[in-house]
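Why does residue order matter? Because the sequence determines the fold. Keep that principle in mind as you read this record.
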Amino acid sequence: MKQNILRAFLGFTILILSFTACSTSSGSSSQANAPANSPTQSQSATLAPATETHASPATPPATQTQAQAAVPTPTQAVAPTQTQLPALPEPTLAPKSTSASPSDASFTLGVEPLVQGLTRPVFVTSAGDNSGLLFVVQQTGQILIIENGQLRQQPFLDIRNKITTAGNEQGLLGMAFDPHYDKTGVFYVNYSRKENGDNVIARYQLSRDPYVADPNSEKVLLTIKGFEPNHNSGMLAFGPDGYLYIGTGDGGGAGDRHGTIGNAQALNILNGKILRIDVNADTYSIPPTNPFVNQPDALPEIWVYGLRNPWRFSFDKETGDLYIGDVGQGSKEEVDFQPAGDKGGENYGWRVMEGNDCYNPNTNCDTSGKVRPIFDYSHDFGCSITGGYVYRGSRYPWLVGQYIFADYCSGIVWTTSRDASGQWQTRQIGKFDDTISSFGQDQDGELYVVGHSSGTIYKLTSQHG
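Structure:
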């Protein structure tokens, strides 16, 4: 089990977010102020190779509060109307897990500040509408716009009155634009409801002003109950199949002590999963190809299960492969993988396993039917994984095909990709002096880094050789 990590940066102390160590204590947070303008002088920072050994978090308290994870009742359209979906990419080679150790790489990574003065940023993304705008999600409840490298002062959306940040892992946590946003003006958010901390998946509509969403257009699609102030996850992303994928944590507390087998292993609970729904209907409907449709005692929204806190996951823009950064307990952090064209239903092991190790029980656990991670690392290297993206931009050809991810606490950055034989080769590429809450991707496949404690959005840069 993990604790909140106190980390000194720029003369102040912050508490670790949802994707960090696992404590049930809840720190109060003030609401966000209006962000400052982007910096007048851009300072370049380089990811230096990591040479230190990072200590694992301190031993957590012996007792934790336990939440009762309620099963939500989804609203399903009687006769859902689905849009015609694109053909799936061809499936890729099945992954072969390796115990890749950090090594020198033929390229280096760096960052350049794009905007500063943000308050607890947790995500950055584009709308995919050829506008060139970037949208920044602040945990405190605002979405802001970056245009031509400058931060616009008027929020795109402000829902601070709807959310709670009472727990360090609560707040406005995720955002995804409709694949046809340029025509529909529709987008989706994931936030912690002010009244009770439930995770809410809601749809919003653009106003007549292309820089401002209509705050009164909210349509709540799905409410997920049973969360303590941690392990809320919050990631939203549309897959290449046109469906909306939703990450849910196991509900919080220590060791997923919910029920007899834990929330993540229970198929009648939405917690500890990635869900897949069709949002083309008036509310939402269940894709008929979801793996647990018509299966007794299983919720049909579930796509994969056995996850502890999949804080950030992403689809490869070219292949459609799914990469999941699943935050570990007190020992291991892991990257999970699902090849494009897969039928779903994978069990990634938690709480039976943590990474490649047994967790409950801690020896001789039943590993049958569990999908092992493609990479895991111990808390000698950090304490909380931040999943990233496969690079598909054009500025740095040597990065193409590399999945880039990091650790929130230590700032260590890795890349992983498969060699010609299908073996995963993972390399420690450097160390960044900020808490990396997320990566982001623009419409052209270029990557950005979100500095949670500094309130900075960086552009990712690279040099070859």
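Confidence is low (pLDDT under 50) at residues 1-104.
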